[in-house]
Design the sequence.
């Protein structure tokens, strides 16, 4: 274990040339440097945030949903059938024509009866509109609060107005209580989302969001240990701006306010474009790639950090392309399509066996909305949220 720890915390990877971990062991009085052990405090904080989420959804979000007349839909339950249940849980949730015909012969059922059973069974596992509204309202409130805090904190920070301050005296930059709180709250929130995926109703974008939350937690932790907190704080605040509008637009969809959802999705697209395709490369990537190169020079973790930031920019472009595609489809149909990540399938006879709806839904986080996952969170059920 000692050899493994020494290999992982190799100074030549993590730190610039001629800097060692011992240089941070005895700081001046009143000066604190980021330490890997600080990250452990995010775990109990994540549990606390998860507990607050449960209370918020029950005592705040649900009453608001009832005022807006958002209720749990009553979907038809699938008839208990052991053979079909085993196929559903172990083989496939959406059997193809050949499988449906085989099951109909095995059970002596009509093909449409088998298709209808699988449709009803899939609907049982999907979260209701009420559940989705409460989840979006919780995320909206958190993003709004953390974004407000981030803007207030960064407004007084010199590196917001001159990004070269991100690299002055690097890596000997003291950790202020405000910056530490900002980082721990963001890290704990994404840890809570990571954990809650295993307790929430499992959605079809589970794996995508699992990877997204894991990558977000990893990026925040990496920048903390590497003491790139100043530029990291700018990245977090920049991404939270669009996520607020995404969750607000989703709430409008669940409340069946079409004009409001269309307006919010439009504003979301504009904010997403300006923050992640203009400000992010011109402001963030410029300082991490060029100003840091001039002021501190490259070293192994510098290359990794910038590689991840460049990968994030690629995801931003892909997510925005998804937003454009969904927007074009919405214009053709005359309105934003509904989120099919978890909507109930049509029960009409003509649609048996066919999934209805167009995906609409990111830390970029894509942006899902979540339909958190198709366009990072909102217009399509894809990667909205992933850009975090």
Sequence:
């Amino acid at each position: 274990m000692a050899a493994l720890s020494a290999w992982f915390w190799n100074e030549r990877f993590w730190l610039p040339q001629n800097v060692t971990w011992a240089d941070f062991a005895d700081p001046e009085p009143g000066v604190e440097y980021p330490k890997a052990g600080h990250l452990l405090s995010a775990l109990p904080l994540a549990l606390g945030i998860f507990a607050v989420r449960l209370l918020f959804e029950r005592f705040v979000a649900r009453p608001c949903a009832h005022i807006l007349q958002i209720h749990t839909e009553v979907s038809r339950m699938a008839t208990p059938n052991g053979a079909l249940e085993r196929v559903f849980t172990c083989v496939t949730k959406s059997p193809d024509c050949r499988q449906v015909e085989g099951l109909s012969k095995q059970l002596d059922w009509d093909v449409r009866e088998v298709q209808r059973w699988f449709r009803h069974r899939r609907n049982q596992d999907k979260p209701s509109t009420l559940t989705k509204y409460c989840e979006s309202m919780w995320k909206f409130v958190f993003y709004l609060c953390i974004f407000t805090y981030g803007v207030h904190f960064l407004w007084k920070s010199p590196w917001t107005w001159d990004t070269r301050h991100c690299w002055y005296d690097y890596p000997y930059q003291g950790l202020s209580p405000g910056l530490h709180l900002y980082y721990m709250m963001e890290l704990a929130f994404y840890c809570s989302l990571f954990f809650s995926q295993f307790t929430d109703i499992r959605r079809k974008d589970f794996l995508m969001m699992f990877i997204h939350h894991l990558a977000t937690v990893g990026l925040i932790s990496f920048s903390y240990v590497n003491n790139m907190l100043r530029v990291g704080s700018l990245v977090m605040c920049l991404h939270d701006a669009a996520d607020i509008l995404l969750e607000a637009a989703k709430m409008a969809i669940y409340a069946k306010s079409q004009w409001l959802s269309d307006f919010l999705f439009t504003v979301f697209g504009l904010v997403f474009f300006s923050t992640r395709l203009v400000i992010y490369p011109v402001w963030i990537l410029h300082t991490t790639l060029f100003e840091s190169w001039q002021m501190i020079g490259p070293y192994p973790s510098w290359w990794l950090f910038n590689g991840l930031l460049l990968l994030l920019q690629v995801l931003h472009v892909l997510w925005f392309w998804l937003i454009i595609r969904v927007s074009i489809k919405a214009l053709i149909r005359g309105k934003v399509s509904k989120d099919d990540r978890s909507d109930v399938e049509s029960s009409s006879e003509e649609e048996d066996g066919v999934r209805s709806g167009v995906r609409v839904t990111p830390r970029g986080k894509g942006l899902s909305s979540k339909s958190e996952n198709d366009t990072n969170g909102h217009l399509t059920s894809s990667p909205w949220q992933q850009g975090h």
About this structure: The two ends are 33 Å apart (CA to CA). The CA atoms of residues 74 and 128 lie 9 Å apart. The chain is about 65% helix and 0% strand. Confidence is low (pLDDT under 50) at residues 337-344, 346-388.
